Amino acid sequence: MGIGDPPASASDLDDDISPNTNDSANDEDKEFFPKLKRMATETNLRAEFDALHKTGPVTLKDEIQGHAVSAVDFVREAAHPRQIFSNLVRQVTLINTIRTYQKEFLLPDFVAGFIEGIMAIPQGLAYASLVNMPAVYGLYVGLLGPFIYMIFGSCRQASFGTGAIEAVLIADSCHELYGPAPVKPNSKTMTASAYKSAKAIYQLKFATWQTEVIHVTVATSFVAGTIEVGLRLLQAGILAGLLSEPVVAGFSTGAAFMIATTQLKNLWAITLPALDNSVEVWIMAAEQWHEGLFNWWPFCFCMVGIVFLKLVQFLNQSNKYTRKVPIPGQLLLIIFATIICRQGRMYLNPGKFMLPVVSSIPPGLPKAEVPIGLEKYGYGRLFAPALKVGILNYIISVAIAKAMGKTNNYEVTGNDELMAMGMINIVSSFFQCYPTALSLSRTSVVNGIGAKSQMHCLICGLVMIVLLTKLTGPLHFLPKCCLTSIIYVALWKMVHFKEGRHYFNTHRIDFFFYFVSFVITIVSGAVNGVLCGIGVSLLWLIIKLARPKCSILGRLPGTTVYRSVERFPFAYQYEGIKIFRIDAPIIFSNCEVVAAEVEKLGKIPGVNFIIVDASSVSDVDSTGAKAITAIVRELKTKGITFLFANWLGPQRDFLDKTEFHDEVPTDHLFLCLHDAVTHAKSSGTTAFLKVEVTPDATNNTEESKDSTDETNVQLK
Question: Is 435 in the same domain as 462?
């Protein structure tokens, strides 16, 4: 029989395929359910089981008592000291790391940690400027973050400290509390005496502003940590799914543009205000460049640094040895630039060079103290920026950590990462650290070297201790334009125009998410870019739920499989029977749409049965249940019978507690769609509809000569 040829009668189709083709399986079923018939409903299956085992149906009282006993047992077990200790041990991943550590891990962990520490030095110095804090605070973050993550973290290759994207998020979230930076006077537009007095006033204002930045940002770290620990206790690791890949790609690209904008002042040694709108800053920079208010020497140094770093990257990628242990190009650049600037005294010659330098970095480890900003601003004022920083940093960091776990075949749990980040932010805030995050670049290097455990964090922390105690003096002469070159090279990996083009060619909605995140980040700031991207994604999800996909199903020839007649135009339908599938939850936002679609089927002349395939209905709420019951009641007055098949267990349990069964008896609920169709056919005389098949749908274009009682229907 060809795919386009219907059988001679409706009974022939049922005789071709029997739903129970495994005789041995049927025999086993009969042992458990002696009276099992061909059409199985959940009601008769439960009745057979209860009769066989001499048990009655579970009453509501029995169910409540069972839940109460389970809750008491759970609380008793959770409160047991052994269980509490077990939970603490499970959260402290360092214990398991030590238990499973092997001597083969020593070398790769040591090399990875050493290179990680070397990379953390220039990145900490550079990215601290993105948070509007002195360079030494970036080193503090690189010191404490690895130590604490080694204790609580679950990603074996993660490198915690400071990152470019996260630094922008922190500054963008906190700047409302400490306000914009004071504007630096320009010596080229003022007399010498006026510039001297204006510079003294500026230095005083800037020192005050910088102190406020430190207090606010450090206190925000503490509040963000408490939020993350609280979310961990609430098992809120699912928050990691809020950011879709298009939103992250668009935000990352916009953030790269935004970071590049913040570095224009170091690139040209010009004065620019801190604005959320990057376009305005570029316009102001162009005006100063047109007026000649810029310095070529920082620009030239920055370009040389970029070329040097790209050359080192090429060597690291082209050589099999440096691919495993890369050349520390960023560290070498800092060493060379510091030596050249100091020996050439370029930082002291305002008429010729006048390169802005990092200035003094206090030696020694940070002192422990309670964050001053907590008392000054209060938990309430800090909660909003801390919530943004904590959640967004967590979402970005856990995405990278899970990618590393997937690459190396182990599991990274979102809840463990929440606890790790929360503990890092809480503890490090007492040592003057701003909120920490996972660095993608350093994590990739650690993974490439082949680190086997979190113990590489120990080596990284030791490298930072040596730097802070012995080597801070020479960093006084480090040019800021050198750090700008490091940042610009890092930005290349943050630009995702290729992904944007892919979204445009494959899925326009994903491109829309990408574009919105990209544009809003540039125009309105990093936090608004991410939040708008998430908001648009959730709005689209709501729209999809409010407009569910509904399909009319037909039976594929020679099978008991039912598929959409729109996709399979050769699928057969039965006269008087309409099979309807809903590919969405039936909830308050879409129940009216679903009811309207069902009502349209009831208006088709000759329809006696409507069979609802609920296999794709993942949820039903009270409003949805009332809407289903109402439409069943309405169409019942017109002589239309409803049958339901493939309800999922939780939905069946919920409907049992509603008025649904007042209109739909339990023997109208089937576990198999084909059983529902067979029941409808046996309840009345139905003719078999033949579908007119086009040559594109099938190669077999012969029409059956025996189908005298069939109607030709073209389904579009």
Answer: yes
DSSP string over 96-116? HHHHH--GGGHHHHHHHHHHH
Quickly count: other Cβ atoms within 10 Å of residue 161's Cβ: 33
Is 418 exposed, middle or buried, given 0-12, 13-18 or 19+ CB atoms closer than 10 A? Answer: buried
Q: 260: pLDDT confidence band, cut at 50, 70 and 90?
A: confident
Same domain membership, residue 358 and residue 478: yes
Residue with structure tokens 């004065």? 271
CA distances from 155 to 90, 356, 453, 455 (A): 14, 39, 8, 11
Query: How far is C-alpha 202 from the chain's CA centre?
Result: 43
Compute the distance between CA of residue 556 and CA of residue 559 in angstroms, rounded to an integer: 6
DSSP states along 121-140: HHHHHHHHGGGTS-HHHHHH
* 580 in the same domain as 522: no
Taking only the tens place, the pLDDT of each residue in 185-204 is: 776 677 778 888 888 888 89
The number of domains in the chain is: 2
**Together in a domain, 562 and 515:** no
- C-beta separation of 589 from 546 below 8 A: yes
350, 196 in Cβ contact below 8 A?
Answer: no
Distance between the two ends of the chain, CA-based, in angstroms? 24
CA–chain centroid gap for 709, Å, is 57
Instruction: Give the per-residue pLDDT at 633.
Output: 93
In 3D, which of 529, 527, 525, 531 has the Cα closest to residue 280? Answer: 525
Domain that holds residue 563: 547-713
10 Å CB burial of residue 277 (0-12, 13-18, 19+) is: middle
Cβ atoms < 10 Å from Cβ of 351: 5
Q: pLDDT, tens digit, for every residue of 34-52?
A: 444 445 565 665 565 556 5
Render the burial of 453-470: b for 16+ CB within 10 Å, e for the rest. bbbbbbbbbbbbeebbee
199: in domain: yes
pTM for the complete prediction? 0.69
The C-alpha R_g of the chain, in whole angstroms, comes to 34
467 shares its domain with 600: no
